[in-house]
Structure formats: C-alpha cells, structure tokens
Amino acid sequence: MKKIENPILLFKKWYQKELELTNVRIPSAVCLSTVGIDNFPNARFVSFKELINDSFIITGPLNSRKGIEIDNNDKVSLTFWWTETERQIRVQGIATKIEDKLAEKYFAERNANSKAVSLICEQGKEVNDLKLLEDEILKKVAQNERIDRPKNWSGFLIKPLRIEFMEFKKTRFHDRKLYEIENDKWNMKQIQP
C-alpha cells in the first residue's frame, strides 16, 4: 500500500516556499467562502493566522456578515492562490469559534489602528458619515491608551475535511491532488486537470 504525504505537512511546505519567494504585501491573504443567510455563496479575503492542531485559524468580528454566516452554517472553504509558485490550495471544512485566550493573543498582535477599527466599527454595516467615523477612530488612536478586545471580536478554527492541491503547468496539464478524511485518516486521489 502506497503511503501518502500528510496534507497538513504539504501545506506547510508549500506555504513556506511561497513566503520565501513572494513580494506581496499580505502573503497570508486567503479567500474565505461561506454560505450566506440568503443561501448565496459569499467570498472575501481574510488573513490566515496559523495552523493549530491541523486546523486553519482566521480572525474577525463575530457580528460581521462572515461571523453571522458561520454561526448559521459552519461549513466553509478557504482558497489560497500563490503567484510565485503558481499553486492553489482549496480547503473545505468545519468552522468553530476559537477560545477567548487565543482571540486575546491575536487581538494583542494587531496595531493600534486595527484595534480601534475593531472596537468602533460594525463591519459591513451602512454608515451615514464616513468622515465622522474615521475621526472617531483617529481620536481613539491618538489617546494612546490600551484598547481591549471587544467581546464580538474573535476568530475561527477551520478543521479541514478536504484539501485540494493544484500546481499550474504551462501545458495546462495541471497537477491536482485531492486529500479527504475517511475513517479518521487522509486518503489522496489524483484528479484530472
């Protein structure tokens, strides 16, 4: 029986290679897709934080559209596209809220502007006066005081059920491997380009 590579280790190897080669400003950007409360798919770019216990971590407000949609339907996907290595990774999995202690850690790593935006803004909600909102944020930052994590700011741990790795080829004969959890272990299928 052929031993297959652990897809989490393969992800780490591919991600590290891209980080070594890339010049993009936000190399951790990943497209998060959710099922909308109106049953339409929703996709947006978020920042991938790290892998913990073979799960992908992202953060953000729980009362944002993504937070509400994940609360309503925990089936999500992540899509990584890396230009330098010409590779794509698609992850499908189940999202659960991270523990408060971990949310505190990620919030503490944010800069003052990001913290102030998270404290004051209601992500995705309509605003009547954008300048007034911006002034409020700048005033908060200028106070140079500690900004505590709002209770509605946290993150999600995405436990993968499927991970597809694709390496693009000039011939268009792309190399695609699909890993799926079956009976608590990873199985791999080579799939057509």
TrEMBL record:
Transmembrane segments: none
Cofactor: record remark: Binds 1 FMN per subunit.
InterPro entries to which the protein is assigned, alphabetical: Pyridox_Oxase (IPR000659), Pyridox_Oxase_N (IPR011576), Pyridoxamine_oxidase_dimer_C (IPR019576), Split_barrel_FMN-bd (IPR012349)
Any one Gene Ontology molecular-function term assigned to this protein's record: pyridoxamine phosphate oxidase activity
Residues involved in FMN binding: R44, F45, V46, S47, F48, K49, R65, K66, Q88, R176
UniProt KW keywords: Flavoprotein, FMN, Oxidoreductase
Cofactor(s) this protein cannot do without: FMN
GO biological process: pyridoxine biosynthetic process
Domain (Pyridoxine 5'-phosphate oxidase dimerisation C-terminal): residue spans on this chain: 153-193
Domain Pyridoxamine 5'-phosphate oxidase N-terminal residues, every copy: 27-137
NCBIfam families: PRK05679.1
Similarity annotation: Belongs to the pyridoxamine 5'-phosphate oxidase family.
The protein's name: Pyridoxamine 5'-phosphate oxidase
Source organism: Pseudozobellia thermophila
Top-level taxonomy: Bacteria, Pseudomonadati, Bacteroidota, Flavobacteriia, Flavobacteriales
